[in-house]
C-alpha cells in the first residue's frame, strides 16, 4: 500500500511519466472549470453547477491518481502511466463531471434537456474512441479498462439521477445506476464475485443500450410512457446481463 499523501511526497512521486500524469489531471480540472463557467454564462446556470462538477472531478482525479501511485515505478518509467487512451477517457470524464454538476440546478435540466442530451452524446461517442486509441497506440492496460468501466458506471448513474429529477420516470430508475455498486459491495461478502470476467460483446451491447435508452428518455419529444418503456428495457437487459455474469463467476469460483 502506498504511503499517505503529503505535498512533499506528492512532488517526489511526480517524476518522469508521473509528472505528465499529474499535469494532465490539473489541466483537466482547469478545462472543466472553464466548461462549467461557460455553461453558467450561456445557460444562466447557478454556481452550484460549477461547484458540484468540480467536486465530482476532484473525486475522480483523486481515485485515478491513487491508482497510478499503486503502479510500480518500473511501469511508470516504461510509459504505462496515464497513457494516450486514458487521457481520452479523462476527457470523457470531464463531460460526465459537467453533467453531474447540472444536477445541482434542476431548472437547468428542465429548460435545457436538449443541451444535456448533446453533452451526453459526445461523452458516449468518446467511449468508443479511447478503446480505438488504446489499440492503435498499444496503450491498453488493466488500469485503463477499470477506469473506463467505472466512468461508464458513473455516467449511467448521473443519467438516472437526471431522469429522476426531471420526473420522467419513477425512483425505480436508480436500480440501473446502483446495480454496479451493489455488485461491488456484494463482492466484499463473496470475494469470488470480484474475479475477472472474460470479454463479452453482450456486456458491451447492454452498456451501450443503457446509455442510449437513458439519453433518449431525457428528450422532451419522447412521451413519458415511451421513456419509461425505454428505461425498463435497459433495466431488464442489465439485470439479465448481471445474472449471466454472476452465474459464470459462481461456476468458476
Care to give the gist of this entry?
By secondary structure, the chain is mainly α. The protein contains 11 helices and no strands.
Mean pLDDT: 85
Strand content: under 5%
Relative helix content: over 70%
Question: What shape does the CA trace take?
Answer: globular
Q: What's the domain count?
A: 2
Largest pleated sheet: none
The total of helices stands at 11
Radius of gyration: 19 Å
For the terminal residues, how far apart are their CA atoms?
A: 26 Å
Tell me the number of strands. Answer: 0
Explain what the structure shows.
- The protein has 253 residues and is mostly helical.
- Helix content is 78%, strand content 0%.
- The protein starts with 6 loop residues before the first helix and ends with a helix.
- The model is unreliable at 1-17 and 73-79 (pLDDT under 50).
Topology:
Blueprint (H helix, E strand, L loop, with lengths): L6 H7 L3 H27 L3 H23 L3 H5 L5 H19 L4 H6 L1 H25 L4 H24 L8 H16 L11 H18 L5 H28 L2
Helix pairs in contact: 2-3, 2-5, 3-5, 5-7, 5-8, 7-10, 8-9, 8-10, 10-11
Q: Any descriptors?
A:
253 residues; mainly alpha; 2 domains; disordered N terminus
